[in-house]
Specification:
The complex is a heterodimer of chains A (426) and B (443). Chain A is 46% helix and 14% strand. Chain A has 426 residues and is an alpha/beta fold. Chain A folds into two domains: 248 residues, Glycogen Phosphorylase B (Rossmann fold); 155 residues, Rossmann fold (3-Layer(aba) Sandwich). In chain A, the strands form two sheets. In chain A, strands 3-2-1-4-5-6-7 form a seven-stranded parallel beta sheet, with helices on both faces. Chain A has a six-stranded parallel beta sheet with strand order 10-9-8-11-12-13, with helices on both faces. In chain A, helix 10 links the parallel strand 9 and strand 10. In chain A, helix 1 packs across helix 15 and helix 2 packs antiparallel against helix 4. The longest helix of chain A has 22 residues. The relative contact order of chain A is 0.12. Chain B is of the alpha/beta class. Chain B is built from 16 helices and ten strands. In chain B, strands 1, 2, 3, 8 and 9 form a five-stranded parallel beta sheet that branches. Chain B has a five-stranded mixed beta sheet with strand order 4-5-7-6-10. In chain B, strand 4, helix 5 and strand 5 form a beta-alpha-beta unit. In chain B, helix 1 runs parallel beside helix 3, helix 2 crosses helix 3 and helix 11 packs parallel to helix 16. The longest helix of chain B has 30 residues. Chain B is globular, with a radius of gyration of 21 Å. The chains are: A alpha/beta (426), B alpha/beta (443). The interface between A and B is medium-sized, with 25 and 19 residues.
């Protein structure tokens, strides 16, 4: 079985969980005898090639004179117009982008239609342009290679997937890692929504990372429930089994939030819960690690509640610093308002940190040894944090069973389900 | 004549309200009055009242040939008094017929028998006094919470003056032996034992309305034909069940009341069986053998052990924290503290903390007000933290005439699940369905 897979990023060049998930899935698929060609907008050359053959979209020549491409381009440009919100981009970046877009609009067509196009491979400037161009590349690769199935990850690649399906006639599987509603709440971007909806409507199967996401896909995108299948994400076993030493220089217990400080992640609920815990127990420090468009607002809120001496912001953390942060933590909290899956609690559990997660996260569907609370229920959240800090058997049970539970979430098993979906289509 | 011993357990716990850590020290009321009232009234209407009516009718019809036995926990009686007094009146009418035996048990439906002999005794006495007051009879036979039993409990029960006790006909207890005889405790031979026939009991409690059961639908005629298949040499069949089986676990629509109504008539028609109570059987029969039970058993789940209530870290911490103050509580005269001490000991709270059902929680979720064992633990520990503060304050302010202020070291029951050799459960020939787990709790 050969799969042509469209992604947007691949380790080590990742900005969110998407690249990590794609890597785990392709490795798992390999174990089930599935051969994956993975297309990314821009390959840096140092990506892990152990599981896949990576195709750099920047290297693909697009036959511009082909009428099919011309026709497709006109459809794609339509989708692009009026686009005003992009994942992982803050409002300032976005303002700048909009103005640039207006300026470059005229030239865009010609730039894109040069035979080769230099993808940035990043979220941000000219994203829509890259999405459109990527679709052309998808069509081009589909016309020239052999495969049985097309698999596209998230809306950025859906157009490429659909184009590849039109050219090759092969079945298309689209994978929903996050919907526009997860990213933006009710202020969703209609163009992104439309790309997602069309991609799913055209697809033969839609894979969602949780039942939570599956429900959104069925209710908000009106996709036929029979073709929407949940395959929960998994987690890669740690490369380095030795946990980093906790360089903890404070005697207080540490409770951590780690993630983008955006609407989706619910940082304000963490702050309100922290305040409730601190009213009763001053021997706790709360850490908000990460950055995002709500960061300043959160700092102001912490100051207003007068808990700044026990509440710390670290800014953006990555790599080793993330591990170190986990190693220092006594409790990890993920209060997400809407989280299609949410891999970070699994990383925390693997570092022997008990976790509190919101019921509005897909990962809650696969975990038993965690505290689950509604994101808005700050009383319950504070109570869970307090309990984990004070009742030692709860702490020890979480550590004892949590690691085992996480280690049982194998990509190999998730990939088996995906391979079964492929087999049902060919 | 052979005997059927029909015994029903009646219990309702006082469920706790959502109690946050910031309530500790600030709010001393722990109970979810709304839920407790709602459930008590619902079960009264769906089960206790209609089932009592059926039994009363049967007693009027068959006279002394039909007898039943009840154990009603102290907390259930309190809830009836509070929320549904007509249930008490109905049980009083049953008591008046003289065909009903009321058993002794722990007032709080607690597990005190496992680790706290003094508290165990206090609760049994409190319960016996309550039964005497309400129904005019003093219990002469004993059954422990969830039929929990061991050699050590047998000794304590005998010391309290009871000659008869009911427990589970567990495989680890009986081996090849049949539950259908009167036994006695091996180390305490004056204590006679009646053992539950779980096969025939569970046919009613679990399988009655299971449409995928090969024997569905179960009629009284069919059931009596099974009774007639019991080896003629065997003397008794002990059918012990939750009273809530009638109308609550098995809904009225399943025909369970019709079965209850028809079953005694079919039994008595055979002229081979009569209905007897535990104390009667204990008088009339000779024990055939002694039963040794070094590790505690119960009627719960496939394992018939204590792991539904004790054994994981959460349950053990909660349990041992609670009993740390038992010495103080034994001499406590504060009514509110005594009430809470009883209610917090209910085995149900520990049952909600059980983690062994994560894989097959379906049966148990029904009986559990919490989303997860961790939530149950968290809430209980918050309540307990407040309770312990109050008890210690009380101990500091009240001159207690002995060394009770010294916090006692609590030893968890030695009868841990891990030490019990697992006996493989044979596939039951008569039933295709594998539901053999015993859910001991109420909604």
């Amino acid at each position: 079985m050969k799969v042509l897979m469209f992604g947007w990023e691949f380790p080590p060049h990742i900005t969110g969980g998407l690249g990590t998930a794609c890597f785990g899935l392709t490795k798992g698929l390999l174990k089930h005898g599935v051969d994956v060609q993975f297309v990314v907008p821009k390959a840096y050359g140092d990506e892990s090639q152990e599981a896949v053959r990576l195709i750099n979209a920047s290297d693909v020549t697009v036959m511009m004179n082909d009428p099919v491409f011309r026709e497709y381009w006109s459809q794609i440009t339509y989708m692009e117009i009026g686009s005003n919100l992009i994942p992982y981009v803050g409002p300032e970046d976005f303002q700048q982008m909009v103005s640039e877009n207006i300026n470059t609009k005229v030239e865009e067509g010609s730039r894109v239609f040069s035979e080769k196009f230099q993808f940035s491979g990043k979220y941000g400037h000219d994203l829509m342009e890259e999405v459109a161009r990527y679709a052309l590349v998808g069509a081009s690769i589909a016309a020239s290679s052999e495969f049985d199935i097309i698999h596209a990850h998230d809306w950025l690649t859906y157009s490429a997937g659909v184009a590849a399906k039109k050219i090759s006639g092969k079945p298309l599987v689209v994978h929903m890692h996050a919907t526009e509603f997860d990213r933006s709440g009710e202020n969703y971007n209609e163009n992104v929504y439309e790309i997602e909806r069309k991609g799913m409507a055209e697809a033969d199967r839609v894979i969602t990372v949780s039942n939570l996401t599956r429900n959104i896909v069925i209710e908000r995108y009106h996709i036929d429930p029979d073709k929407v299948i949940t395959v929960h994400n998994a987690v890669e076993p740690p490369e380095n089994t030795e946990l980093p030493d906790a360089e903890k220089h404070v005697k207080e217990k540490i409770v951590t939030f780690l993630g983008r400080i955006t609407f989706q992640k619910g940082p304000e609920y963490f702050i309100e819960a922290a305040c409730k815990v601190l009213e009763r127990d001053k021997n706790v420090r709360f850490v908000m690690a990460g950055t995002g468009d709500l960061m300043e607002k959160m700092i102001r809120r912490v100051a207003k509640l007068k808990i700044s001496s026990n509440f710390h912001f670290t800014g953006f953390l990555k790599g080793e610093n993330v591990d170190r942060m986990f190693a220092m933590s006594d409790v990890y909290v993920m209060p997400s308002v809407s989280e299609p899956f949410g891999i970070s609690p699994l990383e925390a559990m693997r570092s022997n940190v008990p976790v509190v997660i919101s019921k509005q996260s897909g990962v809650a569907e696969v975990l038993d040894h965690v505290m689950k609370v509604d994101f808005w229920d700050v009383d319950a959240m504070a109570d869970a944090i307090y309990g984990l800090l004070h009742y030692k058997s709860m702490h020890s049970m979480f550590i004892e069973h949590g690691t085992e539970e996480v280690n049982n979430l194998k990509w190999e098993n998730a990939a088996r389900k995906v391979a079964d979906i492929y087999e049902s289509l060919v | 004549m052979r005997s059927i011993c029909l015994y029903f357990q009646v219990h309702q716990p006082f469920r706790l309200r959502t109690y946050r850590f910031f309530d500790i020290g600030a709010d001393h009321y722990y109970y979810d009055d709304y839920q407790n009232k709602r459930i008590a009234r619902r079960v009264a209407n769906d089960c206790y009242l209609p089932a009592n009516e059926v039994l009363l009718g049967l007693i009027n019809e068959f006279g002394s040939a039909f007898k039943v036995t009840f154990s009603i926990s102290g907390s259930a009686l309190e809830q009836f008094k509070k929320y549904s007094p007509e249930v008490i009146a109905s049980f009083k009418r049953l008591a008046k017929t003289g065909n009903v035996e009321f058993l002794a048990e722990t007032y709080a439906h607690s597990l005190a028998g496992l680790n706290d002999p003094a508290e165990f005794k206090r609760q049994v006495q409190e319960h016996a006094a309550t039964i005497k007051e309400l129904f005019g009879v003093t219990p002469t036979a004993f059954r422990n919470t969830e039929l929990v039993y061991s050699n050590s409990i047998a000794g304590q029960v005998l010391d309290m003056g009871y000659k008869t006790m009911l427990t589970e006909g567990a495989k680890q207890l009986l081996g090849w032996k049949s539950p259908n005889y009167l036994y006695c405790s091996a180390p305490h031979q004056r204590l006679k034992l009646l053992l539950r026939n779980y096969q025939l009991s569970d046919d009613i409690t679990f399988r009655f309305s299971q449409k995928d059961w090969s024997e569905w639908p179960l009629t009284a005629e069919k059931y009596v034909s099974w009774l007639n298949n019991v080896d003629p040499k065997q003397e008794i069949v002990n059918l012990f069940m939750d009273y809530e089986t009638f109308g609550e676990h098995q809904k009225a629509e399943s025909g369970i009341f019709g079965f209850l109504r028809a079953f005694p008539e079919q039994v008595l028609k055979t002229r081979k069986w009569i209905f007897s109570t535990p104390s009667e059987l204990s008088e009339d029969l000779q024990p055939v053998a002694g039963i040794d039970c070094p590790h505690a058993i119960s009627w719960a789940d496939e394992e018939r052990d204590l792991t539904a209530w004790l054994g994981n870290d959460l349950q053990d911490e909660a349990f041992s924290s609670l009993y740390k103050v038992s010495d103080i509580m034994l001499h406590c005269t504060d009514a509110d503290l005594n009430r809470d001490w009883n209610y917090l000991q209910a085995s149900d709270h520990f049952y909600y903390m059980c983690t062994k059902w994560f894989s097959d929680g379906a049966v148990h979720h029904y009986f559990n007000p919490y989303g997860s064992p961790y939530e149950a633990f968290l809430n209980y520990m918050n309540v307990l933290s407040d309770f312990l503060i109050r008890v210690r304050e009380y101990a500091e302010n009240e001159p207690i005439p002995f060394s009770a202020q010294v916090v006692k070291k609590v030893v968890l029951p030695k009868e841990k699940a891990a030490s019990i050799p697992k006996i493989p459960v044979k596939k039951e020939s008569k039933t295709k369905t594998s539901v053999a787990a015993k859910p001991p709790k109420k909604a």
